[in-house]
Lanthionine synthetase (Kribbella sindirgiensis), 391 residues
Amino acid sequence: MTAATRQLTSTVASQSLGRGTAGQALLHIEQARIGYGSWRRVHEHIIKMTGAPVAAHSQSCLFEGAPAIAYVLATAEQAAYESALATLDSHIDELTRERLQRAHRRIESGLLPGLREFDLISGLTGLGVYQLRRRRGGEVLHDVLEYLVRLCEPLTLDDQALPGWWTANDIADHPSASWPGGHGNLGIAHGISGPLALMAMAARRGMFVRGQLEAIASICVWLDRWQQGNGETAWWPGTITKRELDTDHLEQAGPQRPSWCYGTPGLVRAQQLAGLALDDQSRQHKAETALLGCVTDNAQLDQLSDTTLCHGWAGLVQATQRVAADAGARSPLTAQLSHLTRRLDELAFFDGSMHRPDLLEGRTGIRLVQISATSTVDSKSNWDACLLLSG
């Protein structure tokens, strides 16, 4: 790997999937795919996002640098990009193996992980998503899955057994006196629901490593432990503090905002996928019922303050589309989609988020969800694989 490709350029906005040109290119790909835009416009964005040296250093991740660029090129599915993809693949494989080696050394040292070691946005789960989408399997994905299984094994710290993915940091992945003893993160973007969704998706595609199904089940047991309510009133917290862990008592009074990143929509999608992977219809139905309760509860919906993909209405709608599709045409979730999409359209018209071009927190993500909502089943694409909503 050359010095140019390895240099630290992760701050280059063009190479950011979440907040830069790479993410915006996904919208142009989707528009070209349905005949609403041109592949020439797509290529212009790809030239723009590759204008600077592509970052392929050890901190590159699905949402930044070479993996983000490669994810976009793979999504385009154009023969013209195969040569560039082959070059990027070799760098991504190398950096993934480097990160896996560091993670295994950390486990062997008995230390707790940072979120950026394993999560979807910055960690090995995201790199596994790329391998699943690009190669539908392979040796590197196998190694990532083996690591995720190991991540689920308990660690003992100060004579206390903790989940292997418990972190000593705060939710921003920094040491903080405001989070004594760290926390357990349940969200799909930064927490254990990301590894759960990836392992379940891989299993549904027939990709298994030893202990994978047991690891899926163990995460589900943890989520069951912290589930509040039942049926349509069920919900899960996004994080667990050390004090809550020690007392086995959740201090959060009610459901948080129903966002993709930390809320019920992302948590439910991961658990639905787990139910499908384990052939556990009861778990699948429980997850789908919880989401139905969420999307019909105005008290929860009123907590959404914007229409973005990460934190707002767009993420709720996209997750609901995916959950409803796997729940079947007769699911009551399907009947809710038109209402939810209409509210997204109405609110987006006045939302200041539309002034930002970003995928996660701007108009790119909102428009992608609007396109998905109006597509037929046969014409839907998997642009949202980067969110672990599709495979």
Residues 82-108 form the longest helix (27 residues). The chain has one domain: 114-387. DSSP finds 17 helices and four strands in the chain. The longest strand covers residues 155-157.
